[in-house]
Write a structure and sequence with these properties.
Blueprint (H helix, E strand, L loop, with lengths): L8 H5 L14 H4 L16 E5 L29 E3 L10 E3 L7 E2 L5 E5 L14 H10 L11 H5 L19 E5 L2 E5 L7 H4 L28 E7 L4 E6 L17 E5 L4 H10 L7 E2 L7 H8 L2 H4 L2 E4 L3 E7 L9 H10 L2 H7 L6 E3 L26 H10 L6 E8 L8 H12 L3 E8 L1 H8 L8 E7 L6 H8 L19 H11 L4 H16 L4 E7 L1 E4 L4 E2 L16 E2 L1
Parallel strand pairs: 1-10, 1-11, 15-16
Antiparallel strand pairs: 2-3, 4-5, 5-7, 6-7, 8-9, 9-10, 12-19, 13-17, 13-18, 14-18, 20-21
Length: 572
């Protein structure tokens, strides 16, 4: 997942998009009744679920959405070949079948993946869903006018690099075969053991060619899920979803579809959302949010109220906030300087600046601390809770900086508790104890993003963050550390400009593995190997705390998304 400041969709996907968007297995059950607050905890069908969000559900077209696991609100309308397991905690990081009968059958070299559709799949109008519809849905995602989705298919599919979609090239992609109405085969450029994860993206949603209205399709996309769009106002600011009577639970083990109606209202201020959820008056008693966290002050207030505290869902998403170094700029070209800063960091003060231990967990590894990522505990430059300024001074002396050092830290001025002034100031204070004077360069969000993602302007020392497109080490480590992904004339995310042949080769070797547990172990080992280079200083992983209305039941929060799964919710 790209950093949210650049492409916000991805964190929701997490949303990836964020995502979104943060790791030991942890969710609602550890902090609240997983089935909902108060009274009869048995989920029942019926009622209207209200969704109160800050960000509109823009581009409600499966081609344009950047989601992981099928998304949250989108997953109510769009089914995909595979999806996330709708379970609490670590169990929710697993890939499971959705439209397909299994998670995919790879060839021996994992370059060909075959799927078979379940029997009895239908659209909202009762017509059958076919493999040709999935092929067409993927092909239209290549159309320039429908851009915005995940970029993987263009890279992974044979001959897809320059494809411009079915509106310009009616021949389609030869890399996708549909030998019959229930079979679809994908031919890849190289082995990709994590293809089942990719098949959860909304680009794998079936789209009937006869109903495709191009850029207007988002106004009324044809549903393959339990709900259909009956109203889409102001580009996703107000979405009204009602039951798709042709959806069958017998073909869908993941979505519960308890409410009769879903009313999505967006464009709201975050403080207003939390206030309404807290009060739970009228329709707000049966309301949730899919994108608004509790801030430090709000959480303090909620924690002091037993009834409110019982209505807080806690989640973790694969996400790391970190310091990035550009080793082509002095003095950061010297590993001892980078190591010294690693030792000097006071993670306790950084966590406090991020909102406290309830909203942030200290990190010493780049990978989030979740099994699915391959988390392997290590602390290569142990700073303890408050930093080790003495060790930092020793390294600086070795590096020729016995009289200290003056450096500039670039950060965003956005009040996001991630790359913002609060975090920068905490780092400044910690490094001062080691004789390092830190000047702060705060930039407006767009200027900050442009600067740190351009190889020509990337500073030597700056704050960054990264979230995963799916819960694995692959989309976490490769974009940041694969030298072949360095972009010289565009948005670059390999912040350390690392191009190590052994690292690149190990990424390729892991990508060939179809045993995801085995792959996870290798990602963890690679994380530690890269960590020895001190190209980043992991700071913390965020924790998500979100309120829900008093009449909401069946709270499920997986480590895939870190947020309440709207497909599982029931209301009174």
């Amino acid at each position: 997942m790209r950093q949210p400041s650049v492409t916000a969709r991805r964190v929701a996907a997490a949303s990836v998009s964020l995502v979104l968007a943060a790791g030991a297995a942890a969710c609602g059950p550890k902090d609240n009744d997983a089935k909902g607050a108060g009274g009869d905890t048995t989920p029942h069908k019926g009622g209207t679920l209200t969704v109160l969000n800050a960000n509109p559900q823009q581009d409600f077209d499966p081609a344009r959405l950047y989601t992981s696991g099928g998304g949250n609100v989108p997953s109510l309308v769009f089914r995909t070949l595979t999806t996330r397991n709708r379970e609490d905690g670590a169990a929710g990081t697993e890939v499971v079948p959705d439209l397909a009968t299994d998670t995919g059958r790879p060839s021996k070299d994992a370059k060909v993946w075959t799927y078979t559709l379940k029997k009895g799949l239908k659209y909202e109008d009762g017509t059958p869903i076919t493999s040709a519809d999935i092929k067409y849905g993927i092909e239209r995602s290549f159309a320039p006018e429908l851009s915005g989705g995940a970029p993987y298919l263009r890279d992974w599919l044979v001959g897809a690099a320059d494809y411009q979609g079915p509106y310009k090239d009616k021949k389609g992609l030869d890399a996708i075969e549909t030998p019959d109405e229930r079979t679809i085969v994908f031919h890849l450029n190289k082995p990709e053991g994590e293809f089942p994860y990719l098949a959860t993206q909304t680009q794998f949603t079936p789209v009937p060619k006869s109903k495709d209205t191009g850029t207007k399709y988002e106004e009324h996309p044809v549903s393959s899920g339990p709900y259909k769009v009956v109203k889409n106002e102001n580009d996703g600011e107000r979405l009204t979803l009602e039951r798709n009577t042709h959806w069958s639970a017998s073909t869908d083990a993941e979505r519960k579809a308890y409410p009769d109606k879903i009313d999505v209202r967006s464009g709201l201020d975050s403080s207003v959302i939390n206030q309404r959820l807290s009060a739970s008056q009228g329709a707000d008693a049966a309301a949730v949010t899919t994108d608004t966290n509790l801030g430090p002050a709000e959480l303090a207030k909620v924690s002091g109220d037993k009834e409110l505290a019982a209505r807080v869902g806690t989640g973790h998403f694969g996400y790391t906030n970190y310091i990035a170094f550009n080793p082509t700029i002095k003095p950061f070209d010297d590993p001892r300087v980078r190591q010294a800063i690693s030792y000097a960091i006071d993670r306790s003060s950084v966590v406090n600046a991020a909102g406290g231990s309830a909203l942030a967990e200290p990190a010493t590894t780049f990978l989030p601390d979740q099994k699915s990522f391959g988390y392997t505990p290590y602390d290569l430059f142990p700073a303890g809770k408050g930093g080790d300024p003495q060790k930092a001074e020793e390294l600086l002396k070795e590096a020729g900086h016995a009289n200290g050092l003056t450096i500039t830290l670039t950060h965003s001025n956005a009040k996001d508790f991630e790359t913002s002034p609060e975090i920068a100031t905490a780092i400044q204070d910690a490094l001062k104890k080691a004789g390092i004077t830190v000047k702060l360069q705060g930039l407006e969000e767009n200027d900050y993003s442009d600067k740190i993602h351009n190889v020509k302007t990337e500073p030597g020392f700056f704050l960054a963050h990264w979230g995963a497109d799916w819960p694995s080490g692959g989309p976490f480590l490769a974009p940041i550390f694969d030298g072949r992904q360095i972009v010289k004339d565009g948005a670059n995310f390999n912040t350390g400009l690392l191009n190590d042949k052994s690292v690149n080769a190990e990424i390729d070797a892991i990508n060939k593995l179809t045993d995801l547990d085995q792959a996870a172990k290798r990602w963890g080992a690679l994380d530690k190997k890269i960590g020895e280079k001190a190209l980043t200083v992991p700071l913390f992983h965020p924790v998500y705390k979100r309120l829900y209305g008093e009449d909401v039941k069946n709270i499920v929060i997986s480590d895939w998304t870190g947020v309440l799964d709207i497909s599982q919710v029931a209301v009174k």
